Amino acid sequence: MTTVVGTSLKRKEDPKLLVGTGYFSDDIKLPGMLHAVILRSPHAHAKIKSINVEEALKSPGVVKIYTGKDLEGKIGRIPSSWLVPDCNLKEMPQYPLAIDRVRYVGDGVAMLIAEDKYAARDALDLIDVEYEVLEPAVHQKKAMAEGAPLVHDEVENNIAFHWKAGEIPEEIFKTAEVVVKESFHVQRVAPSPMETRAAVGDYHPATGELTLYCTSQNPHIHRMVLSGVLGISEAKLQVIVPDMGGGFGGKIGVYPDEALVGYASRDLQQPVKWIEQRNEHFMASNHGRDEIIDVEVAGSRDGKLTAIRVKNTANMGAYLSTMGPGVPTIDFGLMITGSYDIPHASCETFGVYTNTTPTDAYRGAGKPEATYQIERIIDLFAREIGMDPLDVRKKNFAPKEAFPYTNAQGLVYDSGDYEKPLKKALEIIDYEKLRKEQEELRKEGKLIGIGLSTYVELCGFGPSAVAGAIGFQGGVWENSTVRVHPSGKVTAFAGTSPHGQGHATTFGQVVADKLGIPMDDIEFVFNDTKSVSMGWGTYGSRSTAVGGGAVSMAADRVVDKAKKIAAHELEVSTEDIEFENGVFKVKGVPGRERTFQEIARSANYAWNLPEGMEPSLEGQAFFDPENFVYPFGTHIVVVEIDQDTGEIELKRYIAVDDVGRVINPLTASGQVHGGIAQGVGQAMWEGIVYNDEGQLMSGTFMDYTMPKARFFPEIENSFTETLSPVNPLGSKGVGETGTTASIPAVMNAVVDALEPFGITDIDMPLTPEKVWRAIQKGREQA
Amino acid sequence: MTNEKMKVNMTVNGRERSAEAEPRMLLAHFLRDELGLTGTHIGCDTSQCGACTVMVDGGAVKSCTLLAVQADGSEVTTVEGIGTVDNMHPIQQGFWEEHGLQCGYCTSGVMMAMIGLLDENPNPTEEEIREGLEGVICRCTGYQFIVKAVQKAIQIMAESGQPVTAKEAVGEVRS
């Protein structure tokens, strides 16, 4: 049987994007369309004393200005969608425009609407706001201290939630042969998709329907939440996501701005467009990470870890974002043991309100942080007991025989064979030889470092009952419809929300194999809540595992029905029909057959169907998996550090990932490369910086270092395949593996290179200055 | 400076175009909003990302760094002018073959910048390609397949049998 699953097909999505005919939000032009801009707070924390819009209203082309007070009672507050239970969570939902107090630089104060975008920006400067500046709480540990300024008066010590999981018997740490501690800061970064956020509201007065085009990774979640915020029936709110220039978690959130645009379009009965500026994006779109992680491990001199105790102090920003609370708790705290069989674990997480932009899921969401702390501390443990970090890893791996493996926090890892990608990676790099070379070069004064990361991550959300138990305000199943037209051509629908991942191609490959038809016969529809009945979107590396599972099941249902029709026409029982390469054949009788296209016509014409069978040929499936999926792998990084300048050169990057069944190796590799670039970016260059006044110091691409092409060596990536038993395709997730694995791999390599100076940790990002200072300090202490 | 509109004329993708523009209007906005050529994208406010790169009088230029009036009388080529789905420019073919794009937002600008690079240096090393990408930002790909895409484009041009520069290939496609 010919098969396209597992082959590197070129993407169906590409031609229109390559010739410049993609259709992104800013390309939308509707008759009578107005342009919105949002005035944002320049202060981290202030009372709004007055807002004077008189001058601005006189400016040419200005149509309307809304302030928070104007909208009070007319538009709801923006809720979080992950209300983690049993952690005394104090949600303080955000007003779409601040009413009397601003809580971060970028908090919306007024929305101005004009006939032209230049006119709108001109007039925005004429809005006069009088503020009384208040002392801000910026750093999460300081914000928790007694007497710190309160972000929300109702929330004592700014503690938004205090979550705990796991307990460790007291004697474990007391009697341990070795205890190693460290504190890590996984710094705040900006997801930074190349297209900023955008929204276009198009209200239809005659029907009371609102079409909202917006940048979203989950249009149905946007519809569900915004229907509540705007007080409009879900049946009258259509959310469409046009082509979208990346997300990385930054477009999961339901933001005030989209609600405002929808409101304004309904109020003015005209289309309204809002396009976020890049500097605005840095302050008004959710950031990621910003977690201070204190970790302590206990173990024996022979290299076995017995317990891990973690405290995470997470900076949530001024409001709890859509997925925010789940990131440093569920996503992080249940994964702290990583790929290792550590019998005891506990995690305590404080979520802290501060006068900063809210934090939310960013590529990996909690798993990069969990992986960072375990992969870093295992290296420090290895150093403490004088073992090679490779040997400590092998000694502690959850063994292949133990799968499905239950970790100390109670998560059940679906499948795994951690030695497999490790072995492959070691072969590629010739680890033993490399260690010898490192030793030789050290004698010559060259600082070579080798960093390992043998990660596992939790993704593929997931079973809906579990989502409910962990406070997620929605389901996490997926939906697909495979509709076969009379010609045998297919229109298929799926509830995931592709924006670069290539679902039309990979899901198309699944359908092509199932139905035995060419890729060109299949068109997919995504990202329109009127066309796609339901879906929970694209995040948490769930699209292939869950969405692909639904597609596969829907296609199976088409085949099941088609087989019955073929059997009826060929006057045999269904058991006598075999289906291969798009042809239904009577077993053992050559020539007695029907093509898929013939059956498609029969099903749609319905002239002669089996008794009781309904017409048409359409399969629909709703897939709610029994478990999450847990991709894993080994990344190895080799660096050389210039001890005079502190500059780090990435010499080699090896990635061997096991993401279950790979549908398309080309696009899967693309995901790995992109993920690695973002993780290495976090380790080496990127960082959102606030000063003590809560001013955003990194608000443009001039101040925030985005990874560039010349920063990287060629990434040597490959896969091993350990299938997942929890979905029809056997696939795991691939979108976040690179980010999750790479951050500690880079840091471990750098710290390894600096071992001669006694350095055990450096804060990210690893700027040459920080590295140089660490070397100087090491020299002084030597 | 007055905001009074002026008539701006330029040859875009081989066609004479003219439209009214305020003197302060960026070329990027002029191409997108006045001429409807939305294949050119805008990704930042500070001329870092290069998503808006086009060819102006034969050189790759970030169209957010130029006012429309400054390009008056110029010859401009945007992504819409380098190839069609049925007759792609080698750079477009390279990007398709080698998965040089994911979300596709930065892609137009990156391709235009690479046409500019190949025009100056028809046979760049991998290092030179990576350096040539300095003016653009891609958040999706990690750049590796962009580098491969450029190498593929060079190969396609070499195998086409006739010596053709990236810029000439633009003209070929258009005619």
TrEMBL record, chain A:
PANTHER family: ALDEHYDE OXIDASE 1-RELATED (PTHR11908:SF132), XANTHINE DEHYDROGENASE (PTHR11908). Coiled coil: none annotated. Pfam families: Ald_Xan_dh_C, MoCoBD_1, MoCoBD_2. Residues 19-135 form the Aldehyde oxidase/xanthine dehydrogenase a/b hammerhead domain. Gene3D superfamilies: Aldehyde oxidase/xanthine dehydrogenase, a/b hammerhead, Aldehyde oxidase/xanthine dehydrogenase, molybdopterin binding domain. Keywords: Molybdenum, Oxidoreductase. One of its GO terms (molecular function) is oxidoreductase activity. This is Xanthine dehydrogenase family protein molybdopterin-binding subunit.
TrEMBL record, chain B:
Pathway: Alkaloid degradation; nicotine degradation. It holds the Pfam family Fer2. Residues 6-82 form the 2Fe-2S ferredoxin-type domain. Keywords: 2Fe-2S, Iron, Iron-sulfur, Metal-binding, Oxidoreductase. It comes from Siminovitchia acidinfaciens. PANTHER family: OXIDOREDUCTASE WITH IRON-SULFUR SUBUNIT. This is (2Fe-2S)-binding protein. InterPro entries: 2Fe-2S-bd, 2Fe-2S-bd_dom_sf, 2Fe-2S_ferredoxin-like_sf, 2Fe-2S_ferredoxin-type, Beta-grasp_dom_sf, Diverse_Oxidoreductases. It comes from the Bacteria. GO terms for molecular function: 2 iron, 2 sulfur cluster binding; metal ion binding; oxidoreductase activity. The keyword Cytoplasm does not apply.
